[in-house]
Amino acid sequence: MSRAYGGGMTPSDILRANYRPIGGVLCLDFANTVDWHDSERRVELLADAECLAAWARIAGAGDVDPAAADLHRACRLRDAVWAVFRAKAKAETVPGDAVAEINRALERAPAGRRLRVSGDEVVWADGTDGGTDALLGAIARSAAELLTDPDRRARVRMCAGEGCGWLFLDESRGARRRWCSMQGCGNRAKGRAHYRRKARLTQV
């Protein structure tokens, strides 16, 4: 995936140009709302409350109308989720303060699930249409379920692209997926490897 950040783009334009839900689970998709997350050149994709609402729609998490204070809480939760699963992907100790942040979102979430009518079907609803607390609660529950499932947790990976930092659930055969996407970091890595091979040949 090519990155696009300038040219008079609005924050929502930048989000739509640079974000794809590749995580495989809601909490990892939310963690990926920073570009180049594991580098010094990180780019915030949730630059304003409108971006958070746009992300919820892109991720299929419902419609919300967040305020600026909601965005601040959302980014704290996002960073906590990323820190927890980055630690898991790198076999490091999980930071306790990040787990505490996820717990705060769980505590603020509306209790229980409910039914809603969708077309001709009756489906479970997690309440993400009930406001930002419900949206963040759904993300926190997604993180809690993934953290407490040893088999799925063991499949959490960080993209091998230098500085990318995006996380995903590796459900590939043989659990051999390395990249957030072959079109983005995968292609860049292939291009660098080709350049290095060519450079070695010219030096012989």
TrEMBL record:
InterPro entries: ABATE, ABATE_dom_sf, Znf_CGNR. Residues 155-198 form the Zinc finger CGNR domain. Gene3D superfamilies: Jann2411-like domain. SUPFAM superfamilies: Jann2411-like (SSF160904). This is Zinc finger CGNR domain-containing protein. It comes from Thalassobaculum fulvum.
